[in-house]
Amino acid sequence: MFDLQLLETFPKDIGVYIMYDEHNRVIYVGKSKNIRTRVRQYFSDHDTRPQIRYLRQEIVRIETIVVKNEKEALILENNLIKQHQPKYNLFLKDDKTYISLLLTTHKWPMLRIARYKNRLRTKGKFFGPYTNAKAARQTLDLILRLFPLRQCSDQEILNRTRPCLLYDMKRCVAPCVGKCTHEEYDSLVQKASLILLGKDKSVVRSLKEEMQKASKALEFEKAQDLLEMIYHIEHITQMQHVDNPFGMMIDALGLYRENDSVTLALLKFREGKLIGAEHFSFTHIAESDENLLESFLLQYYKNNLPKMIAIPLSLSHAGILEEMLSKTAQQKISLICPRKGKRKELVELARKNAIAQFSREKQKQSLQEKYLLSLQETFDLVHFPQKIICFDTSHIAYTDPVAAMVTFINGKNIPAQRKLFVIRNTEKGDIAALEHVLQRHFAKNDLCDLLIVDGGRAQLNIALKVFQQLGIASIDVLGIAKEKGRHDKGLTQEHVFVAHKNQPIVLPIHSPLLFLLQNIRDEAHRTAISFHQKRRAKRMMTSSLDMLEGIGPIKRKKLLTHFKSMEKIQKASKEDLEKIEVLTKKDIERLLSFHKKR
């Protein structure tokens, strides 16, 4: 525990105080005009905030640094927070969890999701960042629907000789095989960029000019496609519109706190429209709302600053913050706390968003999104694995062969999208069975982001072969094989096979990615085995009924029609069987006797 008598030795000057725990870790950094008075408040009975009680219990040592003025104190506090990442301070983890849209510098540029932290070493143009992975994916999907840019990898586009399935679905203009010119493709890229920058008016104006030219040239089909595109863009931007009469770049911040948990909502307005919202959630925050906002502003705004930032409360260091932000943006930045009018309404709207986000946020889902993004990075997947499907087959000595497909969206199993397959092809073996069901499923254009097959290199190659035959180039594939062919659950060393790597990737045994892949594979395995057992039981039951004296085809049909399944027939009571008019007393006795034997 901290020796309270030491408080009398603290300076009464402007500066920063640093709190340490018993392991010599920095747990909190603060600033004040009078260090001694401010630190003493943490140990008084007047501060009843629950997080302060926990903070007090951990403090063993406090150090101080005196500075010349409040600006230096603010800068030093911000630098120390970034350096030590104290658990009781607000800390944006240097964009490590941020997601952006990246427009690559390829001959045929591709728009894809990427980590914002990689922007300095990755060539291309970044849009964002987004702290909400779902918002980034929805934006990407909208852009690709409006402007059908390529979705295959750089390696894939070099080796293609004919268009993939996305071309037939009008989701790609197939630059890989010369279905569009460079000028046409660059035009799509430029329009997509303008939409992402919030400049939809110029895009709509350009599309209307193209539509008029096409109409005059009697290219009515092209004109109709352009009209639909204009409609979709205007519909989207109309939905985004919020009454913002300023027509300028302004961000509105809303804050909601419950005890030591805080949610910040940031609404971004550009050219009079709400173009995006970001939410930030923090726990164990010991800072006051004023200090929290100051830390947030300094850590968040590093580039693409708006001309005005509306905040929910007055800051004593607002002038210093404006100066620092303006220096970063190399233009005048205004920091305002509106008391009335339209700007006040924007701040209130941001607060409502913060409250809504606080109430619906689920930590598990946030973790799942991070795991999925980590999955994409670890295995160098082209697409974010929002929709994952996994296949597995099941049989005993190739009797009653079946297969199952399970679907996971955002890391969550979706039972309604499960599919079961009865395998009737004459060629025997697990490989042949897998090829059969993959052909049946993907021939219907039911696509996903990532396909997982239960097995090693052979199963992976079969999936790639099927995709090549069907002209599918937009799905990543992984094969996952248990250690030494094991099929039991538990801690096992898995081998994950990737198309472009010769050797499998072995994940650490306690890796959350390993658990995610095992969960998906085991669900497919469980579903396939369960379906196989039901098919086998039904066949055996039917065969046994065939052997019962007096139960011919007509009676079997009546039984199945009435009870709907062999399982219900097996569980039927005497009273239930008596309802079947065609059954005699001897038939019922034989069936009941048959049930007991089973």
Task: Give descriptors for this structure.
19 strands; 5 domains; 45% helix; 20 helices; five-stranded mixed sheet; 19% strand; alpha+beta; Nucleotidyltransferase, domain 5; 598 residues; GIY-YIG endonuclease
What about the largest sheet? 8 strands, mixed
Could you say what the CATH topology of the largest domain is called?
Nucleotidyltransferase, domain 5
Instruction: Tell me the quaternary state.
Output: single chain
Instruction: Please tell me the overall pLDDT.
Output: 82
Number of strands: 19
CATH superfamily of the largest domain: UvrC, RNAse H endonuclease domain
Low-pLDDT stretches are 238-245, 485-490
Helix content estimate = 40-55%
Provide the number of structural domains. 5
What does this molecule look like?
The protein has 598 residues and is of the alpha+beta class. The chain folds into five domains: 81 residues, GIY-YIG endonuclease (3-Layer(aba) Sandwich); 135 residues, no CATH class; 112 residues, Nucleotidyltransferase, domain 5; 163 residues, Nucleotidyltransferase, domain 5; 50 residues. The protein has 20 helices and 19 strands. Helix 8 packs antiparallel against helix 9 and helix 14 runs parallel beside helix 15. The termini are far apart. About 2% of the residues have low confidence.
